[in-house]
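lol forgot to send this yesterday, sorry. C-alpha coordinates for the thing we talked abt
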Protein backbone atom coordinates (compact mmCIF):
# COMPACT_ATOMS: atom_id res chain seq x y z
CA UNK A 1 0.00 0.00 0.00
CA UNK A 2 1.31 3.41 -0.94
CA UNK A 3 0.83 6.15 1.61
CA UNK A 4 -0.11 9.68 0.67
CA UNK A 5 2.55 12.26 1.62
CA UNK A 6 0.54 13.54 4.60
CA UNK A 7 0.06 9.98 5.86
CA UNK A 8 3.80 9.32 5.62
CA UNK A 9 4.54 12.56 7.49
CA UNK A 10 2.09 11.59 10.25
CA UNK A 11 3.63 8.13 10.53
CA UNK A 12 7.15 9.57 10.63
CA UNK A 13 6.07 12.02 13.33
CA UNK A 14 4.51 9.24 15.43
CA UNK A 15 7.68 7.17 15.17
CA UNK A 16 9.98 10.08 15.94
CA UNK A 17 7.96 11.39 18.90
CA UNK A 18 6.74 8.00 20.12
CA UNK A 19 8.28 4.63 19.41
CA UNK A 20 11.75 5.98 18.59
CA UNK A 21 11.82 8.68 21.27
CA UNK A 22 13.70 8.20 24.51
CA UNK A 23 11.71 7.53 27.65
CA UNK A 24 13.16 10.68 29.19
CA UNK A 25 11.97 12.90 26.33
CA UNK A 26 8.48 11.42 26.49
CA UNK A 27 8.39 11.89 30.27
CA UNK A 28 9.48 15.52 29.94
CA UNK A 29 6.81 16.29 27.32
CA UNK A 30 4.03 14.63 29.33
CA UNK A 31 5.05 16.39 32.55
CA UNK A 32 5.26 19.75 30.79
CA UNK A 33 1.83 19.27 29.23
CA UNK A 34 0.18 18.50 32.57
CA UNK A 35 1.96 21.40 34.27
CA UNK A 36 0.70 23.75 31.55
CA UNK A 37 -2.87 22.47 31.87
CA UNK A 38 -2.82 22.77 35.66
CA UNK A 39 -1.45 26.31 35.64
CA UNK A 40 -3.92 27.49 32.99
CA UNK A 41 -6.92 25.99 34.78
CA UNK A 42 -5.78 27.36 38.15
CA UNK A 43 -5.49 30.83 36.63
CA UNK A 44 -9.12 31.00 35.47
CA UNK A 45 -10.86 29.86 38.67
CA UNK A 46 -13.84 27.58 39.22
CA UNK A 47 -16.58 29.93 37.98
CA UNK A 48 -14.99 30.44 34.58
CA UNK A 49 -13.97 26.76 34.38
CA UNK A 50 -17.62 25.72 34.81
CA UNK A 51 -18.95 28.09 32.13
CA UNK A 52 -19.98 26.59 28.79
CA UNK A 53 -19.00 28.86 25.90
CA UNK A 54 -21.80 29.02 23.36
CA UNK A 55 -24.24 26.26 22.47
CA UNK A 56 -25.44 23.80 25.13
CA UNK A 57 -23.40 21.04 23.47
CA UNK A 58 -20.12 22.95 24.03
CA UNK A 59 -17.93 21.67 26.84
CA UNK A 60 -16.72 23.78 29.72
CA UNK A 61 -13.06 23.83 30.73
CA UNK A 62 -14.01 21.69 33.73
CA UNK A 63 -15.62 19.06 31.48
CA UNK A 64 -12.64 18.99 29.12
CA UNK A 65 -10.19 18.51 32.00
CA UNK A 66 -12.40 15.79 33.52
CA UNK A 67 -12.48 14.03 30.14
CA UNK A 68 -8.67 14.14 29.94
CA UNK A 69 -8.33 12.70 33.44
CA UNK A 70 -10.79 9.89 32.79
CA UNK A 71 -9.31 9.07 29.37
CA UNK A 72 -5.74 9.10 30.64
CA UNK A 73 -6.61 6.91 33.63
CA UNK A 74 -7.07 3.91 31.31
CA UNK A 75 -3.81 4.66 29.52
CA UNK A 76 -1.95 4.96 32.83
CA UNK A 77 -3.32 1.61 34.02
CA UNK A 78 -2.31 -0.03 30.75
CA UNK A 79 1.15 1.49 30.95
CA UNK A 80 1.55 0.14 34.49
CA UNK A 81 0.70 -3.36 33.22
CA UNK A 82 3.23 -3.09 30.41
CA UNK A 83 5.93 -1.80 32.75
CA UNK A 84 5.26 -4.75 35.06
CA UNK A 85 5.84 -7.09 32.11
CA UNK A 86 2.23 -8.21 31.87
CA UNK A 87 0.49 -8.35 28.50
CA UNK A 88 -2.54 -6.17 27.86
CA UNK A 89 -5.64 -7.55 26.19
CA UNK A 90 -6.84 -4.50 24.29
CA UNK A 91 -5.43 -1.29 22.96
CA UNK A 92 -6.87 1.96 24.21
CA UNK A 93 -8.65 3.73 21.33
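and heres what i got for the seq, position by position
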Amino acid sequence: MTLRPEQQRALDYARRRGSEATLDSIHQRVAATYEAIESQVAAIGPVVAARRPGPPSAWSVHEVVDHLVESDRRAALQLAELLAGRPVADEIP
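Residues 32 and 38 are 10 Å apart (CA to CA). anyway ping me if u want another try
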